[in-house]
Write a structure and sequence with these properties.
With 178 residues, this protein is an alpha+beta fold. Helix content is 46%, strand content 14%. It contains six helices and five strands; from the N terminus they run αβαααβββααβ.
């Protein structure tokens, strides 16, 4: 007889108790900050040629395709200011798509000694978190190389992987993914 080791059965058996990260401090974003992020999201939709009624999958696919079409992405031919501006818009749109699809939420996260207070999207049970601005900037600046040494556009990959993340409970809360 096969033993049931799913996260749900483990939770029911009390094998996984919520482990707090005593060094973590999560703070909700202020209303004016959320409003500003929503404005940037609309700018990103204009840049991508999509609208706010599109599904998170369409939004993330559009971000992926936009990044793929950027000329010179793998050889550093982009101006740093241009990368920063595009990164911000795409990160906001990607972050909101994750929040809508998987019920994650925007917050400030600070982990003493490791992470300065910054913008993160955080999973419903707080096991995982992602810094969208860092994640997208890393890709657009050519610093997301795979084993082959080529910069990888992983916006779609990470978005799809999030679907099953909560099934794999890490040792502590706020495990960073990017």
């Amino acid at each position: 007889m096969k033993k049931n080791t799913s996260p749900e059965s483990n939770k029911q058996q009390g094998l996984f108790k919520k482990q707090k990260n005593p060094k973590a401090k999560v703070t909700p974003l202020e209303n004016n900050v959320m409003q500003e992020l929503r404005k940037m999201e609309k700018e990103a939709f204009e840049l991508l040629g999509i609208n706010e009624n599109d599904s998170p999958n369409i939004i993330v696919n559009s971000i992926y395709e936009y990044i793929e079409r950027l000329p010179g992405l793998n050889n550093g031919r982009h101006d740093a200011d241009e990368i920063e501006n595009i990164s911000i818009l795409l990160a906001v749109a990607w972050g909101f798509a994750v929040c809508k699809e998987y019920r994650w939420e925007w917050n400030y996260l600070e982990i003493k000694g490791k992470i300065e207070r910054s913008y993160y999207i955080i999973s419903p049970e707080h096991w995982y978190c992602c810094p969208p601005f860092y994640f997208i900037t890393k890709i657009l600046s050519g610093n997301n190389a795979g084993l082959d040494g080529i910069n990888d556009n992983t916006v779609l990959l990470l978005f799809n992987m999030i679907k099953t993340l909560e099934e794999k409970i890490p040792n502590k809360k706020y495990t960073v993914i990017s």
